[in-house]
Amino acid sequence: MQTPPTNPLVSIGIALYNHEAYIKECIDSILNQTYDNIEIIVIDDGSKDASYQSALSAFETNPTKRPYILKTRPNKGMCNTLNEIITLAKGEYISFVGSDDFIHPEKIKKQVAYLESHPDIALVQSDSYIVDKESHITSLFTCKGRQNEGDLYEALISGKGLVNTPSHLYRTCVYEKIGVYDPQFRWEDTDFWLRLTKHFKVGYISEPLNYYRRHGENLSNAENALKFVNEEIIKIYKKNIDNPALLQKGLCKIYRKSYLKALKKLKFQYFLKYFLRYLSCRFGVIR
């Protein structure tokens, strides 16, 4: 019987777009990992600023040398960029780091050790530090309080569970079962995590292992959520949920969350839209 590798290759991918100010800190945090068997793949997705040049400088000036690929090309969008990174990745494990985020020095070491000792787990997540534009820690995002490990599929749909996207590390073998990221969605992670948790279990390390930068440009801010994110999640749910009762439960949760957020933000057009959808959904009319 073959002995499992104790130092498996980890691929870390960065889809870089217009983050000239942050990409050096991101790359440095990967180059300075305590885990040594890492390859880094950075694809600049047609940035309009000097992101590519800043990334190149980060690799050239950091004294810690690791194998890397850095390329730039015209814009193709997030999912196509992630999938291109996947085709280049050679690792047994993979993690994608936001080009405006950075990671704890021991993130990869601790997460690889967890997955190596839990062969039934496909993905491991952790808590996150939230940082501002100046990289100051402003708060802690914790997975505690919601289901964070085990079979998470139904828990994700009901809102009782979560996958903390910025903190992930998962096995690349999952692609054989569930495929890669779906380019029809801008909110690609929700679709991918539903497909992954439908077939695989999730693990959790109860400590912050990455730094997620929260600023006005984040796709997940409240205004973006009301404009288009919720519509995307609705399409994702309809794509991935076969059970009608579970679909109804999930959509009611989305509609209720949306109209309450709209009310809080005094966005009355969105409040009316999602409140009426919520009422229809409660009575079994899915639209």
Question: What can be said about this structure in brief?
Answer:
The protein has 287 residues and is α/β, with parallel strands linked by helices. Helix content is 42%, strand content 21%. Strands 1, 2, 3, 4, 5, 6, 7, 8 and 9 form a 9-stranded mixed sheet that branches.
If you had to describe this structure to a student in words, what would you say it looks like?
The protein is of the alpha/beta class and 287 residues long. The chain has two domains: 10-213, Spore Coat Polysaccharide Biosynthesis Protein SpsA, Chain A (Alpha-Beta Complex), CATH 3.90.550.10; 222-282, no CATH class. It is built from ten helices and nine strands. Strands 1, 2, 3, 4, 5, 6, 7, 8 and 9 form a nine-stranded mixed β-sheet that branches. Helix 1 (23-31) runs parallel beside helix 2, helix 7 packs parallel to helix 8 (222-240) and helix 9 packs antiparallel against helix 10 (268-282). It is globular and about 60 Å long.
Could you state the order of secondary-structure elements as H and E? EHEHEHEEHEEHEHHEHHH
User: pLDDT under 50 segments (min length 5)?
Assistant: none
CATH topological fold name of the largest domain: Spore Coat Polysaccharide Biosynthesis Protein SpsA, Chain A
Major β-sheet annotation? 9 strands, mixed
- Helix percent band: 40-55%
| First-to-last CA distance | 53 Å
Name given to the CATH architecture of the largest domain: Alpha-Beta Complex
Backbone structural class: alpha/beta
Number of β-strand runs: 9
Number of domains: 2
Radius of gyration: 19 Å
CATH superfamily of the largest domain: Spore Coat Polysaccharide Biosynthesis Protein SpsA, Chain A
Which class of the largest domain in CATH terms? Alpha Beta
3D shape? globular
Give the percentage of residues in beta strands: 15-25%
Helical stretch tally: 10
Give the integer mean of the pLDDT values.
93
